[in-house]
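Re: weekly structure request thread

Next one in the queue (63 aa):
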Amino acid sequence: MPEYRVYTIGHMDQFIAVQSIECPDDQAAIRQARQMLDRHSLELWELERFIIRLDQPPTERNS
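Done, posted below.
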């Protein structure tokens, strides 16, 4: 099964964490990475192949 890496993106687009996941294909890896999305953006890679960047939607602030 292919191994993917999910990189957490911090300030100034620096990688601040990485987690390996195994998934049968890109779509399954994207679904799993979406579940990991929190307050930081994520990038999904398979070896040197970039798959997708997932950004958290902006939150509404009450004034």
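Residues 39 and 57 are 9 Å apart (CA to CA). The mean pLDDT is 91.
Next request, please.
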